[in-house]
Each structure stands twice: as structure tokens, then as C-alpha cells.
Write a structure and sequence with these properties.
By secondary structure, the protein is an all-beta fold. It has no helices and 13 strands.
Length: about 180
């Protein structure tokens, strides 16, 4: 594909991985993408899990083999990177009604790698809700179950949700919102 073309905004290649011993780790890897123009972004999407990986910031993707008679579907998309403006355009954290945890909603003005963490009021990490998750520009919702890194329910109280986003062009943004967990 001619990635410098101004006519073509995006191209997609679909492929499947079939076979292997079920449960074995399979690694997809690719060369370093320094020759990809800076105004382009390459994204690997695992259609079975919905997970997206920015290929410029990572060199591989691992998953469990589907087994001899099954397959996994993937796509590689190269598209024009979005530029300028604030990276995080909105961010809210709302406690779940009738359940422990919170709903985290955010909007991005550009594709970004997203980290969402929960901290106690002393600033100590209590949970990694999302880590290095590729997210496209637009609105996203994530549910945090109110549990700690060890999987135990956190006590009632005030916590801080931290959203960090890093665009493929290097722009970064961070936002913090409080949330009160109660049983």
C-alpha cells in the first residue's frame, strides 16, 4: 500500500490464524514501523476480543491458540492520524447504582493508547482498570468493579480514577476524577 497517498485515508487487511494446540501462546510480530509516515497510524484489531493495539508503539501481540479446528480473526488498518486539539475531550466517573464499582466514560479527540487506574486518597495504586489499551477517537465506557489489584472488594470511601491517553504522534493527556464507593 502506498501510505503517502492523500487520496486514500485508510486501508485494511484482514487475516485469520487457524490451528495450533489449544491454549498455547501465539505471537504475532511485525517490524519496527519507523518508515510509516508520521501522519499515519497502524492498528492491529483482534476481532474475537475487540482489543486494539497500536503497532507503532508495540512490536508484537500475544493470544491463546484457537485449536486445530478453530480460528481467530484479525485486521490491520493503516489510516490518517488525527492531529491537534485536546486529546481527552470529556471524562466522568459515576458510582454504579445497586452494585459496587463505577462506570467510567470518556471521549477522545484522536486515537490513543489508554491507561485507567484507581488510586486511594493517599495516591497509592489500588487497581489498573485498563492498561495500554488502544482506543479510537470517540466515546468509550468502561466498568470498574470496585475491586483491588488482589481481587478483593475495596472498602467504602473516596477513590481517584486517573485516565492517561497517549496518541501515536506523541501527544499525551491526563485527567483525574473522584468517585465514592459505597455498598
Amino acid at each position: 500500500m502506498e501510505t503517502k497517498s492523500t487520496v486514500q485515508d485508510a486501508a485494511e487487511w484482514k487475516f485469520t490464524v487457524t490451528g495450533g494446540v489449544e491454549g498455547d501462546t501465539v505471537t504475532l510480530s511485525w517490524p519496527e514501523l519507523s518508515l510509516l509516515p508520521k501522519d499515519r497510524v497502524a492498528i492491529l484489531k483482534d476481532h474475537d476480543t475487540g482489543k486494539r493495539t497500536f503497532m507503532r508503539t508495540r512490536s508484537q501481540y500475544e493470544f491463546s491458540a484457537p485449536g486445530a479446528s478453530s480460528s481467530r480473526s484479525f485486521a490491520v488498518t493503516v489510516k490518517r492520524a488525527q492531529q491537534a486539539g485536546a486529546l481527552i475531550s470529556s471524562f466522568s466517573v459515576v458510582p454504579l447504582r445497586g452494585a459496587r464499582g463505577a462506570e467510567i466514560a470518556f471521549s477522545l479527540s484522536a486515537d490513543a493508547s489508554v491507561d485507567i487506574s484507581a488510586l486511594n486518597v493517599a495516591g497509592r495504586l489500588v487497581q489498573r482498570v485498563r492498561q495500554a489499551t488502544a482506543a479510537e477517537a470517540g466515546t468509550h465506557t468502561v466498568t470498574w468493579d470496585g475491586r483491588s489489584l488482589s481481587g478483593t472488594a475495596l472498602p467504602n470511601g473516596l477513590y481517584l480514577c486517573v485516565l492517561s491517553a497517549k496518541a501515536p504522534d506523541g501527544r499525551q493527556a491526563r485527567a483525574v476524577r473522584p468517585v465514592r464507593l459505597a455498598r
